[in-house]
Amino acid sequence: MSNKRKKYQASFKSRVVLEALKEQQTLSELSSKFGLNLNQISNWKKQAKDCMPELFKKGIIKKTEQKHKDLTDRLYKRIGQLEVELDWLKKKMSQ
Fold first, then answer.
1. Are residues 59 and 44 in contact, defined by beta-carbon separation less than 8 angstroms?
2. CA torsion sign, 7 to 11 to 12 to 15?
3. Cα–Cα distance, 6 to 8 (Å, whole number)
4. What confidence tens digit (pLDDT) does each residue in 40-60 have?
5. In angstroms, what CA-CA distances link 14 with 4, 8, 80, 84?
6. In the chain, what are the helix, strand and coil shares in percent, each to the nearest 5?
7. What residue spans of 23-59 are helical by DSSP H?
8. pTM for the complete prediction?
9. CA pair distance 62, 66, nearest whole angstrom
10. Contact (CB, 8 A) for 83 and 59
């Protein structure tokens, strides 16, 4: 019987890391509270600290928002094109 790795959602990881960063409880207490291994909490905490400077870089949020907007625009354009093609095919099939 194989042991499957647990997969945690980002919201859960964030909550655990925020609690760890507050340092109001020891890692042992957090481990018991969330049912995680001490090393897992330490790893997530380290990852958060390593990535934190990226969050505060100038313009990173604007770039991400622009990429999202561009992708959304392309997808809506493609959806429109497919709807037009579908309507054309329906007309051709009914003739």
1. no
2. positive
3. 6
4. 999 999 999 998 887 777 666
5. 22, 10, 38, 44
6. 80, 0, 20
7. 27-34, 38-55
8. 0.57
9. 6
10. no
